[in-house]
Amino acid sequence: STQSTWGVGFRRETPINTHSGGRMFVALRYQSSPLAGRGIWLAACRQFTTTTAASDGESPLPPPQKPTHFAVPGGWRYMPSHEGKVIDHNEPLAVVIGWLGCPPKYLHKYLEWYHSKGIDTLSLVPIAKDVLLPDSGRARMMALLEHLDANTTTSNRPWLIHMFSTGGYMYGQMMDVMKKNPQRFEKITSNIRLQVVDSPVDFQHIACRLPRAVFPHSRARQVVSEALVTAWLNLFKKNTSKLVNSSRNFHNNCIKAPALWYFSHDDDIGPPEDCIGVINEWRALGIKCHVMAWPQSRHVTHMRHHSHDYTSSLDRCLSAYVYKTIPAFDDEVLPSGSAQ
Question: For residues 288 and 261, what is the distance between their CA atoms, to the nearest angstrom?
Fold first, then answer.
């Protein structure tokens, strides 16, 4: 088997505060290759200052750092809004499901916005396996519900769910788990206060449109990926039927909490007509839906291009349905300004 040691390859920089006020960055690099025997621990220290411990009696070692996030089964990541926070069981929790292959730094911008509001986050970035192998996606959503139900710090908290693109498919998987275990997850379901839907992609567009999102700058990779996904769906009909079932759950939403939708009229990955169709279905089910739509805005980049519209509408819905500090409102279409 291939030997693994520390060498050139994966790099992670961790900032450490020093007693003297300086900061030390320790860069760890990981390599797994036939040349791994030559790998060594490599520490690159920058912007580092220190004092002589013997002269003032201080320990030269930095104090232990509290973790900034906590791993949760199923690949979820829990992050408190700030370090050292004492969790209040009455405070809301934001469950954020990113888009397929979403770079963590992009999703982190949304998490930071929630943290600025004092809201803890529980986030997940789906991978291709979660979509092409529906049982994998379902297992992740089951892990989420089990964690929320079993953990005393989350079981009674009001929460909202914020999903992007293929996150809508994952949400459909979560609804399937809820419907098949109604008594077990009844309390969790009733604690959902708001549904935030950003640029969802429905089943019929998985093969032809998702490659555009994953490889936006490579037409060749788009063509190859589309052919592979189409072949996969045609060969494995059982998986395809599960994808269709998730889509059906999404359309026939069993969660009655109000919803806030974001989409654009020039999005060819999550077409506006699909969004409008689902919105009308949800309204027919008695779900209050607010819509923020723009004439032009790239897929899942609405917060970047229309930051004021995006955050003000989300803040308004949080106040009305999560914190309940303002009355609920009936505006079906929220006004949008110019691009930010």
Answer: 11
